[in-house]
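Please check this record.
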Amino acid sequence: MSNDIFLLDQSPLFPPADLAQENPNGLLAVGGDLSVERLIEAYKSGIFPWFCEGEPILWWSPDPRCVFLLDDVHVSRSMKRELNKSTYTITINKSFGAVVDGCAAPRAKEPETWILPEMKSAYQELHSQGFAHSIEVWKDDELVGGLYGVSLGRFFFGESMFSRAKNASKFALIYLTNYLLKNDFILLDSQVGNPHLYSMGAVDITRENFLELLAKHSDWQQPDDLWQPKQLLDWR
């Protein structure tokens, strides 16, 4: 394990993810930019950016890695009842910018956000080029929840989610994982675990295992119409 934090130059290439630090867990590199080319190289290498206001761009690859194995997403009996009686409408890529804004908005326990203006701009460009996608949850015509992330090969790399109504972010996650499973994906990356994610079936796998899966499945060609804006009609 390296004790160095790598300083990035103009090249979009990264050092191997398994050279990331143990403390803080997963910190690999500093600097560079948030260009589409660099971000795609990062995700294909098992690396993602995360930094706060006043910090340089920090790049991470933690060990272990929190993921959803799509066959193992947990939907409780009570949640199934909520899903079956719900009047929410769930869509893909209908309002990407609004979902990112919702994820960036201050929260009661998190008054500060890591989704800074430069991050918003970078992921909006990824969306424009067909790499970043959103799931929206609507109550009538009001956006009440959603999530966004990046999709490459058979992976969806979740970035953030938000909820302004009961279970809205859970609905977004459940509908997305079902959609991914039906379209031959194998994994939804959640980066770092928390009790909410674990309660829905997320598990930790080693970085080595994560990188092996990524190397095997990141070049799979997604169907051309996979991320066309649409309504999702089924959660199972």
Notes: The helical segments are 36-44, 77-85, 96-104, 117-128, 168-182, 195-199, 207-217. Residues 6-63 form a domain with the Alpha-Beta Plaits fold (CATH 3.30.70.3550).
